[in-house]
């Protein structure tokens, strides 16, 4: 394939026109473009650079929803993953059925599809879309697939369409030229664009070419590269698209390092969910409970340790938790992000020490309005904070949200927020969890002190021991047990 004629640096230096032309000039690439919603922005590139007859088997746009339903079957929404997958499956299958006997030995077939809602005439709609490619990396190969979800940030429909065309070309080119280097493929998706124009908040690789790809790492890569401010995956490792996952759900977030997940983390979430779910506006609704890792936490040592990240992801998965990776160190930025996706209530749960940091003015020096501006943004949609108490290890004194030690200048503001029910103390906690600190648990694991197993959920202990996470040494631990 043409990637064999291009070294890595040459591939990354190509502009959009050169990428489209490179695909057109590859005699093996042949397939269909099916685009709904914003015109045929991607295939237009392949037509206008020349040589399209060697690449384009068919180009179509089923713009009317009833026509689209008739071709691909009904979907819950016009722009959704379900519709995209139906398009990819059907168009790729048609290519294989119609053309395999004629040119299957020498052709890598593909189907590119997108379903997009660009800016409408009144500018009142959510501007986003699903885009994907189903393809053969080599002739007669099993299928592979890449799916992404994009948010268009330009204020002009024509600019949004232009950006979509560029992303689409990058995706098609990357599928054939960089399928052996998925990290670089992800990085190439915004070639010729900037993060001020397009956000990619979800990517999923599947199929034979990506059999060794961990989509959780690809989600991390999106945030690390700045292609998105956040990314999500479920406890089974499935990548999630935020607007679909959070749709019509109240949201409860716990931020932490989760090295590892301890009993206190689970108790904090359980207690907050119990209180949050009892609010009249949340009765009978499914609360989305999320554990959040921030990039600042993952990069605490300067760089991201991928094994450490996967260890944390695995122990959260053992607890059945959905994971959010975000680049929103400031809570008000996290709140703004979540508010995009739901009109339901949002809550944060945190320990008393963390709540003290929320009221530390040093974190808001970049805002003209300082801490007042940050709180205006944080609490504008009736966000609630549930504060888990902390116990002093020396005195046994309990610190709750009622006796928080904050700056005298902010005490009246703090009292006002408490009075409004924005800051709430958790009194339904398990006292046995108060003396558990993740840093102590981590040290006990490294030291071979088996008492750490009583401080984490049983399933977490199983995962740590089975995979030797967080410095656990199986042989040393077994020898220690034998002596005891």
TrEMBL record:
Protein name: Nicotinate-nucleotide adenylyltransferase
């Amino acid at each position: 394939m043409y990637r064999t004629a291009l070294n890595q640096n040459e591939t990354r230096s190509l502009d959009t026109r050169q990428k489209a032309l490179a695909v057109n000039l590859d005699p093996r690439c042949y397939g269909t473009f099916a685009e709904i919603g914003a015109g045929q922005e991607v295939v237009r590139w392949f037509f206008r650079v020349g040589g399209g007859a060697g690449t384009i088997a068919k180009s179509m746009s089923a713009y009317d929803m009833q026509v689209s339903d008739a071709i691909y079957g009904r979907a819950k929404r016009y722009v959704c993953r379900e519709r995209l997958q139906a398009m990819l499956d059907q168009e790729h299958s048609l290519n294989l059925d119609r053309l395999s006997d004629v040119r299957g030995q020498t052709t890598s077939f593909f189907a590119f599809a997108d379903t997009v809602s660009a800016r409408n005439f009144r500018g009142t709609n959510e501007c986003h879309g699903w885009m994907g490619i189903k393809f053969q990396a080599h002739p007669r190969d099993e299928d592979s697939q890449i799916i992404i979800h994009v948010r268009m940030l330009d204020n002009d429909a024509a600019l949004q369409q232009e950006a979509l065309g560029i992303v689409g070309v990058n995706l098609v080119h990357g599928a054939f030229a960089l399928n052996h280097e998925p990290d670089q493929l992800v990085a190439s998706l915004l070639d010729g664009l900037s993060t001020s124009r397009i956000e990619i908040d979800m990517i999923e690789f599947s199929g034979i070419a990506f059999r060794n790809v961990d989509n959780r790492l690809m989600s991390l890569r999106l945030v690390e590269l700045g292609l998105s401010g956040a990314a999500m995956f479920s406890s089974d490792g499935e990548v999630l698209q935020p607007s679909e996952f959070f749709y019509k759900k109240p949201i409860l977030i716990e931020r932490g390092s989760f090295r590892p997940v301890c009993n206190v983390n689970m108790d904090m979430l359980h207690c907050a969910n119990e209180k949050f779910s009892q609010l009249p506006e949340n009765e009978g609704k499914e609360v989305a409970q999320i554990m959040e890792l921030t990039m600042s936490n993952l990069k605490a040592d300067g760089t991201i340790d991928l094994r450490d990240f996967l260890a944390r992801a695995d122990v959260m998965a053992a607890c059945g938790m959905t994971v959010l990776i975000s680049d929103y160190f400031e809570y008000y930025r996290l709140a703004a992000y979540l508010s995009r996706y739901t009109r339901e209530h949002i809550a944060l749960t945190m320990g008393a020490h963390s709540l003290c940091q929320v009221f530390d003015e040093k974190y808001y020096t970049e805002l003209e309005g300082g801490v007042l501006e940050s709180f205006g943004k944080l609490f504008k949609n009736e966000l609630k904070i549930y504060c888990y108490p902390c116990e002093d290890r020396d005195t046994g004194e309990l610190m709750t949200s009622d006796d928080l030690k904050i700056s005298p200048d902010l005490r009246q503001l703090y009292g006002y927020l408490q009075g409004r029910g924005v800051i709430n103390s958790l009194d339904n906690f398990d006292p046995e969890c108060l003396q558990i600190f993740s840093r102590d648990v981590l040290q006990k694991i490294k030291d071979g002190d088996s008492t750490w197993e009583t401080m984490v959920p049983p399933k977490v202990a199983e995962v740590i021991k089975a995979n030797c996470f967080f410095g656990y040494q199986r042989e040393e631990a077994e020898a220690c047990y034998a002596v005891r």
